[in-house]
Amino acid sequence: MSKTGWLIYIKEEAERNRSFIDMFIEEARKQGIILQLKLREAFHIGVQEHQLVCWIEGQRTELPDFAVVRTIDPLFTEQLECLGVPCFNSSDVARICNDKAKTHQFLAQQGVPMVDTLFLKGEALSSIPFSFPLIAKEVHGRGGKNVYWVNDEDEVQELSFEPQQDLVIQKPASKLGKDLRVFVVGNKIVGAILRQNKNEFKANYTLGGSASLYELSEQERELAHKVIEPFEFGMVGIDFLFDEENHLLLNEIEDVVGSRTLYQESSINILELYVSYISSKIKTV
Is the pLDDT assigned to residue 259 strictly greater than 60? Predict the structure, then answer.
């Protein structure tokens, strides 16, 4: 009998990623899996009569064999896991990797190189022990949003973060407007894309940067695996910066990673690999 899975998005992101969703559902069908799109807004989770419960459109529903959670909501993911639904990515991955401070705190303990980074709240911006220039980021920001270049104390005062907003403050990497995204399925590296932007300190492709396929050196592969090893990933993108000697420095991990550049710049079908990985995992559950 075919396995059934939920592909979970918030409504806005589902509308924006319709072609990717259709590709995902079709790839699952090819591999004998029924994958159904579900909108996060339709769910309610909680406790009823002392038991964890999950409703869709106000109704208790039969749970799937697995869920691919393409929205950032660790509590929701953990609720599904507690109800016995394997989730890709897991709530542990979602909790750490969608928080830049937690990501750096966790992977610094694994010996992963990274730029100097402070963890603080918006109210503490007036007492930064680093020299300028600096980069200020919200810990939950994605896609290059809410990332600011700060030249001096006057520009610090112009930042509009809320007092209790969790932030990271970082020293800029030596090579501005250049980063490397390493795509991972399970514990395997499946490809890497170099992103560059000559007009921005941020290299994001969606902000006008260029993208090209990149061949990792053995040393770079070893570093990527050092990041991979402590986790049980489904599909993620690990983003690295470059120091003055072109050595990699961890920047962040994208839990809900997009793969447009990988499809544009290579023949790698990452969704085929991802569905195959999911299939192998749910067979063992």
Answer: yes
